[in-house]
Request: fold
Amino acid sequence: MKTILVVEDDPAILRGLEEVLVAEHYRVLTAATGTMGLTLGKKENLDLIILDLGLPDLNGEEVCKQLRTAGVPTPLLMLTSKSQEMDKVLGLELGADDYMTKPFSVRELLARIRALLRRDHGMKKELEEYAFGQIVVDFRKQETARKGKPVKLSVREYAVLKFLILHEGEVVTRDMLLNEVWGYEHFPTTRTVDNYILALRKKLEGENATPRHILTVHTAGYKFVKDAT
Ligand code: CA
Reply:
């Protein structure tokens, strides 16, 4: 589970963000002041920080600067209000990774969050080769072998497989796959996702086999497991 720290002095916005993020299965820490945000940002093991620019004590720029000076590499999304347009640029120069202007759509915020988390994940673990069961996948060359024999996968199938593997052991919903693999500008149906999963299973796990690696999680989505039980 990814942990997100939200630093925001407006209680309504803070509560709203917390509810939205918890509903998306993130673990959420909150801070209503810059000082508190700085303390938590340095101390906790975070995956993302959402930081309001206009805070009453220590403003967002200062919090961001101090976090970066202290060597905190956590991706940071800055929240700004319209009147602070100029400060946006400053925020980015100070080491924020992205910003959003209030009021923002929840859908867009969640997409930005996923993108930042993915970018962070990608830096930590660039997936090049991966082996599981009787399968060996080379993502760079886009080559796959099953029991030593080549298996042909499409570019999209490689993307689906990579996403599942990067989330090994976690439930991956159809919406996550649609957002991350197809991109939120395209809207194929969840049925499309199911068809890709079926095709991948057929190619990787064999025609009649009970899935051992790409599992269905009832009503939730899918889960990749490396070691078949
Ligand atoms: Ca504020």
The mean pLDDT is 87. Residues 128-224 form a domain with the Arc Repressor Mutant, subunit A fold (CATH 1.10.10.10). The CA atoms of residues 17 and 183 lie 23 Å apart. The two ends are 23 Å apart (CA to CA).
